[in-house]
Amino acid sequence: MQLLSGPKVRPIPELRFADLPARTRTLTVPTDAGPVPCTVYEPQPQPGTQPPPVFLNLHGGGYVIGHPEQDDHICRYLAANVGCVVVNADYATAPQHPFPTAPRQAYGVWQWLVANAAAQGWDGRRLAVGGHSAGGALAASVARQARDNGTFAPLLQILDYSPTDLAKDPATKRARTDKALINPRYSNIFNNAYVPRIADRLDPLVSPALANDLEGLAPALVITAEYDSLRDETDGFARALAAAGVPVTHQVIKGVDHFFTHHGPVDAAKQALALMAHSLRTVFSDQPR
What we know:
Blueprint: E1 23-29, E2 36-42, E3 54-58, H1 72-82, E4 85-89, H2 101-116, E5 127-132, H3 134-149, E6 157-160, H4 184-194, E7 220-225, H5 231-243, E8 248-253, H6 260-263, H7 266-286
Parallel strand pairs: 3-4, 3-5, 5-6, 6-7, 7-8
Antiparallel strand pairs: 1-2, 2-4
């Protein structure tokens, strides 16, 4: 399985943002589903500023490829342009760790941030979560678990070209390009590894678009790619969230396929990253400190 592996892990050079300063360190977060290594990106401190808000980033890879470093450029960009701490979580992947390990770990890291952000020198009341591809669906699972458990909810959930319906036959998903990056073969490999029990694919933590109880979920930024075979399900999820009264910003990025925030086109990738940064700055500035 070569998708998103090997040399494709790193974004194209124009999107690496190596010049953006960020202090990085590692920590391991304990969760009830096992420890989760995380890389922390901290913005350059500014004199007289308040403790920074926190964004939990969840990488993609079809739930089976564990390369959190592929999001290094996104983490650097958000830390520099939002002024937030970014915690990039290396959750456990399938098939060694199938569902529900990943959503349980993602929520466990979220709970740890809620409880420990202040001790880290961060603002524990200004927290958001988001991810790319599979990571976006995990971000949606964090928002759902927080709502259902009555715990502190994200100020924003970001779903970036995410799979939201794993119960649907991948062969029936419509791509708008002849060479879609996420094709039925890859989807079946990912789905069978992550959710081997077919009945579990109806679980809202796996397929958030299939849930019929969306009221009260965290506000969402939903980004989809015009040519992506996952676009239709996540466009539909954005509409369903809005119909349930959830504040939603939904943007379809034209002329791109899945994973474009890593592989380009550069202008489209920067458009999406700027939208993420703007949305985070908005919710963080609106929240009383």
